[in-house]
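TA notes, week 10

Several of you asked for a full example with nothing omitted. So below is the full record: structure tokens for the whole chain, then the designed sequence directly under it. When grading your own attempts, check the secondary structure regions first.
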């Protein structure tokens, strides 16, 4: 027991004696350094320096030198770990109170200050937290900025002052405003105290200059002096004359004139940064031009090797974008220097990190991410411009259609038609990938896309779709859902699609007609299936034709292409009026050559003989020339219906004109027979010169007449037509003409009431309009659509039709160019139609009213009606043009392109007039806002 007690007493004695703690070498060096710095601060002749606390950054702390005063001040150094400035911001200008100076009589009593030696890591952390808190609180004009803030923050704080409210019914000032807010000077004039602000909430006065530029934070005018009615004037005057306030004013004026130490020290750095930013913006400008060039041509821009360190290797495939950058860098010094710098930095990084595949922190402006962001941004800006134009126009029409692309995705294009200033526009606003093609789903997609660009479905006054039930259905179609929201909207079945359906009807109504177009398709496929057969055709055509005509090929036909049937037929026969370019004799020669050649097998020979028999029949020639006459009427109308900006009245007039010409063909069968006989005589002469043994029929063969059995109870006997030519006239010729006229009447019968109202607005009918001949309800439909009074509209129209001839004479002649773009599966056909402005259409009347500004007074209602009618869409072929461009942009090799990027590409490609007018600075500024790093590099 005694031994245990002895051991316990020894342990207690050991615990009672504290161990001496020895400082490490690092702690000794830090303590010695702090003492040395503190001693240097009290050295005589020492410049007055102040190291402020600032926000964390990557740059090291800097000291700011203030102008020397009467007595030196100690240097107050801060720990380097907590005195790091924010990148891009210099030190702030601060004022220290000196000994012997006149002090502000309103100072908060000074407490015990900690020495710099005793400052710990916890104090530093609390300083940083207080800095963050004070920075976030500067949004309140009475929260003083932190003393360590830079000059720009303090100057921004000064912009919110002075705050000098006056007495009103809601509150009363506790002092006389004219005595406190103003200072009297000799002579009786008053000067406003712009440094003084009053907070009505807490009833305190503040000195904004001291709040921002004074380092002594104990002044009551910094934290707010509670107003004392008896001594307010004295206290304001005492603070205004204090040395502390005077020093703050000098600091503020120095900073305002950019003569402070921060600005003078950093002027070279700022200039270098500005030069770097200017150079970066020049690089982006050139990249924007390259992107627009690639997008307009619909080219791919990615490549196999896009790493920056491989750009100088010209043997690699860098893609269209980088190849254009390298090409232009040969002739442009800005791009050349940028590429050299980027390649050098990338090679250096590759040398240090050979296993790394990314770019790290290197900003090249040439990466796929940067280019994708620029493309998407430009597409968004095009959308915004279109949205602004539609908003200015107020009312608009919608055109929609969908198709399946090469990536097996259902793409829906949305076109908006509107009238802005004096022109009609049809713009692509969205290309969306729809998951469901029901009428409701498509309507919701349309509504969503319009809301994204700040447009409303309530402003839709018209829509034009194809005949698909999901679009045109009167119960669940898109047009039905639009009418539920906009009751007065007008639905128009696309006139171009209807005309194509009319052509399909007449090509399927008679067996002889079906045989002709089946023969055309089979012949084109016969030659295209084998290069040997096609070489026979090309050799023969090349020997007979010159120039581009040597490349003529037989065309295939398709039901979804307006021009495929007439082009396939005209390639063989030319035209009714000019048959000098016919290839009929060449076709017969090639078929006979193949049928007699031993290098072709029996199947090919039999097919060639069958085709010869089909093309040499008299019946085939009659049907061919009949449809050549029909296509000469329908093709110009179809082309015209595909023009952009076509108004509904002009489209209706063109359709009626085609119908009238079809009716005139009915009694002209004899002319058709004479035309065919003349062609046969010419062909016989050509075939004899080519030594072709095949013979073309010169008349219809006599066939056995099938007689129907007379049934019991029937008194009359069926008397069939015995003459084959007469039978062809009755059963084929008349059937085709009647089918064409009937299909037009049946399919173009929509919106008849609206068309009747438009007839009175047609300037060609102005001479026939009389007040007594106009029905009372004639303008009700169009007036309701435009939202005007029908009686006033009628009065304005009667006045305008009398003045129209005089106004038309004074107008300047104008011309317009319309571009039609169509696309087949194999090629894209572009044709330009140039026409003079007729001065006798709805567009002419609208432009006349707009140019002369007559709608502002005399013809307000009439102008609104003409603008509304021009806004109505009668076709949706603009959607078809979008799909033509879609096949160019989204190819088999680019089938995985993103939807947002695809839409932006198409917007730049199709709406190139808007894309060309985008301002470089706007694009670059918006691009820079996408990240803080880009803001430092570009702004």
């Amino acid at each position: 027991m005694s031994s245990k007690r002895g051991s316990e007493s020894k342990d207690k004695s050991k615990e009672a004696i504290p161990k001496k703690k020895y400082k490490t070498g690092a702690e000794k060096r830090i303590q010695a350094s702090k003492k040395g710095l503190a001693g240097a601060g009290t050295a005589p002749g020492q410049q007055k320096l102040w190291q402020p606390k600032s926000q964390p950054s990557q740059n090291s702390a800097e000291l700011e030198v203030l102008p020397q005063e009467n007595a030196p001040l100690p240097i107050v150094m801060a720990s380097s770990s907590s005195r790091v400035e924010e990148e891009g911001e210099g030190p702030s200008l601060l004022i220290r109170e000196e000994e012997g100076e006149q002090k502000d009589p309103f100072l908060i009593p000074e407490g015990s200050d900690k020495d710099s030696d005793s400052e710990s890591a916890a104090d530093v952390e609390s300083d940083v937290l207080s800095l963050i808190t004070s920075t976030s609180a500067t949004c309140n004009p009475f929260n003083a900025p932190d003393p360590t803030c830079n000059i720009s923050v303090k100057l921004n704080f000064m912009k919110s002052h002075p705050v000098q409210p006056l007495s009103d019914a809601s509150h009363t000032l506790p002092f006389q405003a004219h005595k406190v807010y103003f200072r009297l000077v000799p002579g009786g004039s008053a000067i406003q105290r712009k440094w003084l602000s009053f907070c009505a909430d807490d009833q305190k006065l503040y000195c904004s200059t001291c709040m921002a530029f004074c380092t002594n934070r104990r002044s009551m005018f910094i934290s707010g002096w509670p107003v004392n009615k008896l001594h307010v004037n004295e206290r304001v005057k005492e603070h205004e004359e204090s040395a502390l306030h005077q020093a703050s004013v000098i600091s503020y004026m120095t900073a305002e004139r950019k003569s402070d130490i921060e600005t003078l020290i950093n002027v070279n750095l700022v200039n270098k940064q500005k030069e770097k930013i200017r150079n970066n913006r020049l690089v982006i400008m050139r990249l924007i031009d390259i992107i627009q060039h690639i997008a307009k041509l619909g080219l791919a821009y990615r490549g196999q090797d896009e790493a920056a360190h491989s750009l100088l290797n010209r043997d690699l495939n860098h893609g269209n974008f980088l190849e254009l950058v390298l090409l232009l860098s040969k002739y442009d010094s800005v791009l050349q220097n940028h590429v050299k710098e980027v390649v050098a930095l990338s090679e250096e990084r590759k040398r240090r990190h050979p296993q790394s595949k990314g770019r790290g922190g290197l900003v090249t402006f040439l990466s796929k991410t940067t280019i994708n962001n620029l493309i998407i941004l430009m597409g968004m800006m095009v959308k915004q411009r279109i949205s602004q134009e539609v908003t200015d126009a107020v009312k608009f029409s919608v055109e929609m259609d969908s198709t399946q692309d090469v990536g097996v995705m259902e793409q829906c294009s949305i076109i908006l038609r509107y009238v802005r200033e004096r022109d009609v526009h049809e713009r692509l606003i969205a290309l969306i990938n729809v998951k469901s093609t029901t009428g409701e789903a498509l309507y919701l997609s349309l509504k969503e896309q319009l809301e994204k660009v700040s447009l409303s479905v309530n402003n839709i006054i018209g829509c034009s779709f194809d005949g698909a039930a999901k679009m045109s259905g009167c119960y669940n179609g898109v047009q039905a859902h639009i009418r539920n929201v906009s009751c007065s909207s007008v639905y128009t079945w696309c006139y171009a699609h209807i005309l194509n359906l009319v052509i399909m009807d007449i090509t399927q109504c008679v067996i002889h007609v079906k045989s002709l177009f089946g023969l055309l398709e089979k012949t084109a496929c016969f030659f295209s299936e084998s290069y040997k057969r096609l070489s026979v055709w090309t050799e023969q055509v090349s020997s007979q034709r010159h120039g581009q005509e040597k490349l003529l090929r037989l065309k295939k036909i398709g039901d979804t292409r307006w021009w495929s049937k007439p082009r396939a037929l005209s390639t063989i026969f030319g035209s009714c009026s000019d048959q000098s370019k016919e290839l009929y004799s060449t076709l017969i020669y090639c078929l006979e050559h193949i049928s007699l050649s031993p290098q072709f097998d029996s199947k090919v020979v039999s097919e060639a003989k069958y085709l010869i028999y089909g093309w040499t029949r008299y019946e085939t020639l009659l049907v061919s020339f009949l449809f050549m006459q029909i296509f000469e009427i329908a093709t110009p109308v179809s082309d015209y219906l595909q023009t952009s900006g076509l108004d509904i009245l002009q489209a209706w007039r063109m359709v009626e004109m085609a119908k009238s010409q079809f009716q005139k063909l009915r009694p002209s069968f004899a002319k058709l027979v004479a035309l065919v006989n003349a062609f046969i005589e010419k062909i016989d002469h050509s075939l004899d010169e080519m030594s072709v043994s095949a013979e073309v029929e010169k008349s219809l063969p006599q066939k056995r007449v099938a007689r129907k059995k007379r049934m019991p109870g029937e008194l009359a006997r069926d008397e069939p037509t015995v003459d084959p030519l007469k039978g062809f006239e009755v059963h084929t010729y008349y059937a085709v003409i009647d089918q064409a006229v009937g299909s037009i009447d049946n399919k173009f019968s929509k919106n008849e009431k609206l068309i009747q109202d438009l007839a009175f607005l047609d300037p060609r009918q102005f001479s026939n309009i009389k007040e007594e001949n106009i029905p009372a309800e004639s303008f009700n439909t169009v007036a309701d659509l435009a939202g005007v009074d029908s009686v006033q509209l009628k009065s304005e129209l009667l006045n305008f039709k009398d003045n129209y001839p005089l106004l038309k004479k004074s107008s300047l002649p104008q011309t317009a160019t319309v571009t039609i773009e169509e696309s087949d599966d194999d090629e894209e056909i572009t044709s330009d139609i140039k026409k003079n402005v007729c001065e006798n259409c709805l567009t002419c009347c609208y432009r006349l009213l707009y140019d002369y500004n007559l709608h502002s007074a005399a013809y307000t209602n009439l102008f609104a009606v003409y603008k509304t009618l021009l806004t109505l869409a009668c076709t949706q072929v603009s959607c078809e043009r979008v799909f033509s461009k879609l096949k160019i942009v989204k190819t088999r090799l680019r089938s995985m392109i993103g939807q947002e990027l695809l839409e932006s590409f198409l917007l730049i490609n199709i709406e190139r007039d808007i894309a060309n007018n985008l301002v470089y600075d706007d694009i670059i500024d918006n691009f820079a806002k996408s990240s803080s790093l880009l803001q430092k590099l570009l702004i």
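Residues 1-16, 47-138, 812-837 have pLDDT under 50 and may be disordered. Use that as a sanity check on your answer.
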